[in-house]
Amino acid sequence: MGSNKYNYHGMSNTGERFLAGVYHHLPSILAFTAPHPHSYDRIQPNTFTGAYLCWGKENREAPLRTSCPPGVPPDFVSNFEIRSFDGCANPHLGLAAIVNAGIDGLRRGLKLPPPTELNPADCASHERLPHDLLGSVEALAADKIFHELMGDKLVTSVIAMRKAEIEHYAKNPGAVHHLIHRY
C-alpha cells in the first residue's frame, strides 16, 4: 500500500518497482503462466484475460490489475492480479517467474508507465502481448535477466519443453481433446 511519503496510484515505492518488474518481463512470464499452445486461444482482446502489455487500476482488460477490497479507500492498493495465468500452468513455476520479475524490478528500480483506464484494445498505443506460445518462448529465450535469476538450466529446459509441446500439437491437432479429458 502507498503511504503519505510515496504513493504511486495507491502503491508504495516497493510495490511499484515490483509490479514494474512484472510488467517489464510479462512476455517472458507468459511462457510459464500460459504454457500450452492452446492457452493463447483464451488470451484474446475483450475477454478479460489481458492481451495487451499494460496495467490498470480495477481494469479487467489489463493483464496486470491493481485492486483493493470494498471499504478500502481508492487511493490505496492492497493487491495486484496477473490475469493471464492459465489452468495448465505449473503454479510453482508461474509464481517463481512472477517473483523473479518483481525482484528484477526492485533491483533496477523500474518504474511503471501510467495506468490504462480504458479497454487497451481501443488504444493504438498498447503493444499486443505474444499471441502464441512461440512468441512467449522467444521472449523468454531473449530475456537474459530470467536466465540469470531463475537459472540457465531451468530456463533452457522450459524453452525446450514448450518447443516440444508446440511441435506436438502442431503435428497432432486432435491431441487437445486428450488434454481436455485428462484435466
Number of strands: 3
Question: Radius of gyration from the CA trace?
Answer: 17 Å
- CATH fold-level label: Creatine Kinase, Chain A, domain 2
* Low-pLDDT segments: none
**What is the ordering of alpha helices and beta strands?**
HHEEEHHHHH
Mean pLDDT: 88
Largest sheet: 3 strands, mixed
What is the architecture at the second tier of CATH? Answer: 2-Layer Sandwich
Helical fraction equals 40-55%
Protein name: GS catalytic domain-containing protein
Family: Belongs to the glutamine synthetase family.
GO molecular function, one term: glutamine synthetase activity
Domain GS catalytic: 1-183
Q: Your description of this structure?
A:
There is one protein chain. By secondary structure, the protein is mostly helical. It has one domain (13-181): 2-Layer Sandwich (Creatine Kinase, Chain A, domain 2), CATH 3.30.590.10. It is 48% helix and 6% strand. It is built from seven helices and three strands. The chain has helices at 13-33, 39-42, 91-108, 133-142, 144-150, 152-171, 175-182, and strands at 55-57, 64-67, 79-82. Strands 1-2-3 form a three-stranded mixed sheet, covered by helices on one side. It starts with 12 loop residues before the first helix and ends with a helix. The relative contact order is 0.20.
